Write the structure tokens for this entry.
Amino acid sequence: MNDHQERIQYLDSSRGIAALVVFISHFILVFFPSLNFSSIAHTPLHLIWDGSAAVMYFFIHSGFILCYRLEQRNFNLTLRSYLAFVGRRIFRIYPVFIFCLIMMYVAIRLNLFQQNPLSVISFPLNEYWQSSVSIMSVLKQALLLIRIPNEPVLRLLPQDWTLSIEIAISLILPFLYLLRSQNAVWILVFVYLSVHFLSLDGFVFDFALGISIVSIYPHFTLWWKSNSSTFVKFIIVLFAILFMSTDHILPPKIFSILELIFIHSKAWGCALMMLILLSSVKLKKLFSYRFLTLQGKISYSLYLVHLPLLFIIYPLGSALTFPGLILFLMVYVLGYFISFLLYTGIEMPMIRTGKNLSRKIFKIG
């Protein structure tokens, strides 16, 4: 196995773990919302169910992987190469999303979401899937890039806002890649200033961090391997964990200052954690286990199906009063199985179709 293939595998695993964190965060929100107000929620242990940090890692991961693959293909920006890139992204994101969107429409028509969590703490969750949905609404939501309606509580897949950002950034990523090839620092400066002065979405900066890592990580890896001090490496890992936890361990005023300076302070911790993964032989080996890499591959489908699945399972889980861990494992295994079917039945065939069409239409491999 060459280094390129290996890198994709262990980074797939990290994406899968991020998807699992999102799953856990919503599981707790549905079944154990009081945990979000406990003392443990104000420690770095909150990272186990910190969905916002996981989403930031998703964006950093996407920025790195997309830019890295463009570099591996010696990408040159032309009209044909640009259309081929965007076409592949469309086939990667839209097919399974539209399938899940249709399934959600069917589920709502079958009244599968009549019983939502009723506790006072989780009351905001009761806003989801309560409005009537028409075929026209499904068609509008299928656009994704143009969000009609924009409010998550009115959408069939409330978490699809991240996909809208993915699609939007896909349209400009080849240009960001070219900017990065000139100077990795310049892309961060350019996007940083655009966020502060041009009202660019802050999550674009997370993508820019991932793109910049493509240029930074060879130097960081060289330093990491040449530095034999375990203590220094421990401090760097600890620093990454603490930075990823800033909103939970710092007073709100200090956290707000950090957000003003860093845009997303937690994203810097996520970026550093990715650099550590790219550099650590032990972590690469740990993240190369087949179960983890498979979870990474199905993570997109898992991200799409997990929230509706949790709400469908809620009445049964509450009625049978399963222990929390057992209930989580049951829901997770079911979500894993459904996601595997979607990955093998829709995602992989559509990814291959996108690649084949780009070769035939645009003559680009």
User: Anything to note?
Assistant: Confidence is low (pLDDT under 50) at residues 1-7, 117-122. The longest helix spans residues 324-362. The chain has 15 helices and no strands.
